[in-house]
TrEMBL record:
InterPro entries: MHC/Immunoglobulin, MHC_I/II-like_Ag-recog, MHC_II_a/b_N, MHC_II_b_N
Keywords from the named record: Adaptive immunity, Disulfide bond, Glycoprotein, Immunity, Membrane, MHC II, Transmembrane, Transmembrane helix
UniProt name for this protein: H2-IE-beta
First-listed, main subcellular location of the protein, grouped into a coarse class: membrane
Protein's organism: Mus musculus
Protein's membrane topology: Single-pass type I membrane protein
Domain of life, per lineage: Eukaryota
GO biological process terms held by the UniProt record: adaptive immune response; antigen processing and presentation of peptide or polysaccharide antigen via MHC class II
Gene: H2-Eb1
Chain ranges passing through the membrane: none
Gene3D superfamilies: Class II Histocompatibility Antigen, M Beta Chain, Chain B, domain 1
Amino acid sequence: LLTVLSPPVALVRDSRPRFLGYSTSECHFYNGTQRVRFLDRYFYNREEWVRFDSDVGEYRAVTELGRPEAENWNSQPEILEQRRAAVDTYC
């Protein structure tokens, strides 16, 4: 019983859930640089939930979790303008 309660073992046994949110911005080049596609992808716990695709020109939900966020970002012209310009400014 003392082993289970010792600090090193207690730290190892920490079973609280961990959640990770992150995003990636990607440039895909086709035919040299004649055609460029920009993707801005958002992940939560390794699952993509929303993305901006320059070929589409707006955010699209990948899962139901992303639907409210995509609708919110798509309702803001300045955000869409910035993302659409990323093909030239970021890539």
